[in-house]
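User: Sequence in, structure out. Go.
Assistant: Echoing your sequence, followed by the structure tokens.
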Amino acid sequence: MIFPGFILLPELLFTIAGICLFLSLGKFKSIVDMEYEEVQVECHSGYKVNEYPVAFTFQGQRRSVSEIVDRWYEGGTTPDKPVIDYFKIKTDEGNICILLYSGHEDQWFIRC
């Protein structure tokens, strides 16, 4: 529901729709299967493992992360909803992608 006087950017609307889908399905894997592809990611590990992505290999090409535009997480409130980390990144080529890290499965996924 959009209230009069509020304007939602497409990215925010997508995020809200994804969260609603996440809550209605009650499953993380269903969302990943629909929107994201599994990807190999190289990470910086500082105070925690896989703290943030520095490069990834997608469709046979290695791409460096030039900037982390935004980052957020969801889940972790109950055992059946594990923490999922999201990174909106910019590549050296200027492409914007969203990388998702599923720590409980130790897997990365991408949507470009």
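User: And one key feature?
Assistant: The beta strands are 37-44, 52-58, 61-74, 84-91, 96-102, 107-111.
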